[in-house]
Description:
The protein is α/β, with parallel strands linked by helices. It contains eleven helices and 14 strands. The strands form three sheets. It has a six-stranded mixed beta sheet, sandwiched between helices. A hairpin with a 2-residue loop joins strand 4 (58-63) and strand 5. Helix 3 crosses helix 4 (112-122) and helix 4 (112-122) packs across helix 5. The longest helix is centred in the middle third of the chain and has 16 residues, at 168-183. Adenosine-5'-triphosphate (ATP) is lined by residues 14, 17, 19, 37, 39-45, 193.
Amino acid sequence: MTALLEVRGLTRKFGQLTAVNNASFSVGAGEIWGFIGPNGAGKTTTMRTIATLDIPDQGDIFIEGRSVLVEPQRTRQRIGFMPDALGTYADTTIYEYLDFFARAVGLSQELRPQRVREVLSFTDLGKLCDRMMDSLSKGMSQRLCLAKTLLHDPALLILDEPAAGLDPRARVEFRELIRALASQGKGILISSHILSELSEVCDGVVVIEKGSIVREGRVHELTKNISEHEMLFIRTLEPVHELERALAEIPGVLKTRQEKSGMVVEFQGEEDAIADLLQALVQRNLRPIEFHWHKADLEELFLSFTEGNLQ
Ligand SMILES: Nc1ncnc2c1ncn2[C@@H]1O[C@H](COP(=O)(O)OP(=O)(O)OP(=O)(O)O)[C@@H](O)[C@H]1O
Ligand SMILES: [Mg+2]
């Protein structure tokens, strides 16, 4: 099946500096992929190139199998790029701004008001539509930037650090918007240098460092490889040190570490051994109230990369 986005052997140089070095990855429809790397890693350069705002020195990018370099005009209709900063526009209201860009993407006069209302409502900006743009908070600006990106109903969204500067509640709300867009079938590439920010929403991650992709894959496949053993999370009503002591005596328990008010357990054994583990805890008068597979998050994943566990 043709991927929605395929980046193939992308290289971009600025003089002596290779900002992106032979990068390849892909994103499918309905998927959210995190694009993660430290400052200066090459995220924005890659994203701008996907969005036809820059031209690679080598390689190509395909949207629904069609080359971005050969068909830049078509690409612009199929993708929405949210840059890391929204330009400032004096004397413009939110509505005027969106109406202007709706015109710029070629929406007819008949369709424009409804489409602008739709994106305002999706991003929950409806009530603010008469606010001047230079009076918006960071969170409002980010929402407006997303609203603008959605005007032409693109199949692929390229979002450059959309959650930067948002407060915790706004981050959660932003994640919900992203999830809703993916469930509509849109593919989403979202950059960040904060791993935990993306761990909740991503189907896959592409990790870039100094222009090169150092890791790429689906989160569940990457996390599966961290340990060959089962990872469990257990929390009991009793204090965590009592749980820890009990676990130390139970066969199959290889390693434990405290996380929040429970323990993450690396366990060797099949499902019946896991059931026995639960029973053994109860026999020791511990009362488990949480007992489930522990899902490694991206933060752990990244740490394991640097330890080289995934080699
Ligand atoms: N127009 C340009 N001219 C010269 N160098 C550039 C240009 N654009 C980017 N670079 C350089 O390319 C490298 C990659 O930059 P890029 O903006 O892609 O990184 P990034 O991963 O987006 O970083 P950040 O997390 O800080 O946003 C950096 O070393 C940067 O200085
Ligand atoms: Mg950047």
